[in-house]
Amino acid sequence: MKSAVETLNPTRVRLSIEVPFEELKDSLDAAYKKINQQVTVKGFRKGKIPARVIDQRFGRGAVLEEAVNDALPKFYTEAVNEGELNVLGQPEVDITELKDGELLAFTAEVDVRPEIEIPDYSGIEVTVDALEVTDEEVEKAVEQLRERFASTNPVERAAADGDVVTIDLQAKVDGEVLEDGVADGVSYTIGSGELLDGIDEAVTGLEAGGEATFTSQLKGGSAEGKDAEVTVKVTAVAARELPELDDDFAQMASEFDTLEELKADSRKRLETTKQYDQATQAQERVLEELLKLAEVPIPEKLLADEVQTRKHNLEHHQLGQMGLDLEKYLEIQGKTLEEFENETSEQAVKGIKTQFILDELVNKEKLNVNQEELTEHLMRRAASSGMSPDQFAQAVVEGGQVPMLVGEVARGKALAVVVEAAKVVDTNGEIVDLEDDEDEAAEATETAEAATEDKADDKAEEKNEA
Question: Given this model, what pLDDT does residue 220 score?
């Protein structure tokens, strides 16, 4: 076999391959064997029909077609390996010559990963939010905990903001009561905004037995989006009572003995959350700067496929779980279809550039992924997918997605290398030291995932559903 590589552009090549006919012998033998099992000829046992009879009865062309289809992938792979090409996607194959007994010649055009020169990233400098926890934030966190321990007591007075009312609802559209527009005994906290627009104003001031009618646009059900005449009847009013903020509350709501200990713990938790957010912010901004430094050609077909994949995942996974279609989603977002498609394309370009650059860094820095790192990443992926680790691992293995997970972890480690070399300062001008963060590589993996939007979890979910 002879092969030659022609570079069409930085991301696409054409392979020209010539195969002497004697190298097709194994594929020809396999073709005759396959046809033997599929046909019957009077006077011959199944599977024992001579090659010359198959040629006479079914045509040599059918045999050649079967043999060539069998041989093409093997010779294409040999040519790719010989040319040391890093191909992307499936090739477009064109048979240019087929002379029985002499020669098979074909071309294969395919996208290839472009050669990327990793820029000097040691000069990257980014600014992140300062790590500050205010007294107001601590008070808010404690107040939220206090809200969780609120109790309700029936009262004989008009309903007011913050009260919990029990209500019966009936919705009409065009004067007709909707089949799914009746609900009794609904518990609702006034001011929570969890039900229909206009309901807070309607029930405020009503005592038990009081009734009001208002107009509101329905948020779901058979008449979603339509204006309905809603009748609401209050059957009970209860006041929410918050516990006193004292040591007794701390003992009831936590493992601490005093309120001051509870507040100190709340502050520590907020600091931990802000440290995580700060590290993530640093990684995202360092990655943005790295992408600006590197020139990365984008294969057109790969980009088109990535855009289609992102749209498919949005429509059939994310929006489907929320009960939305693309049209409704765009309406909520206030975007046109053109704006959505432009944004999706920009995100896809960023994802491809991120993957190419970080993969090149993995090779340059000779980064490896050990079993412990892969297992930890798999556990996080399983948690985010809603599957058990065993289910997720089985689906990933059966779907052939293990190399994808390894790539995700490796790219996270590559990003962590760049972040470590960068200068990170906070808004107060203080140097931020991220090296002591044990979870830095894991956080960098999540940041890289967010940019590239790999599909291991989606494919695992599809496999599990099947």
Answer: 77
* Residue 323 neighbours by CB distance under 10 Å: 9
CA 323 to each of CA 120, 159, 195: distance values in angstroms, whole numbers, following the listed order: 47, 33, 17
Query: Which tokens in the block code for residue 386?
Result: 């809603």
User: Position 22: which residue type?
Assistant: E
The number of beta carbons lying within 10 Å of the beta carbon of residue 349 is: 16
Helical segments of 45-98, H only: 51-58, 60-82
Give the N- to C-terminal CA distance of the chain in Å, as an integer.
42
Residue 441 has pLDDT above 60, yes or no: yes
Q: Amino acid identity of 450?
A: A
- Which DSSP string do the residues of 291-322 spell out, in sequence order? HHH------HHHHHHHHHHHHHHIIIIIHHHH
pLDDT digits (tens, 9 = 90+) for 106-144: 999 999 999 899 989 999 999 999 999 999 999 999 999
d(CA 300, CA 92): 14
Compute the distance between CA of residue 248 and CA of residue 146 in angstroms, rounded to an integer.
Answer: 12
* Helix (H) or strand (E) segment spanning residue 19: strand 12-20
Distance CA 134, CA 456 (A): 40
Q: To 5 degrees, how large is the angle CA 456–CA 459–CA 461? A: 110
300-309 exposure pattern, b = at least 16 Cβ within 10 A, e = fewer: ebbbeebbee
**How many whole angstroms separate alpha carbon 262 and alpha carbon 273?**
17
Annotate 203-240 with three-state secondary structure: HCCCCCCCEEEEEEECCCCCCCCCEEEEEEEEEEEEEE
pLDDT digits (tens, 9 = 90+) for 36-57: 777 777 777 776 777 777 777 7
Residue in the structure block whose two tokens are 């205010």:
134
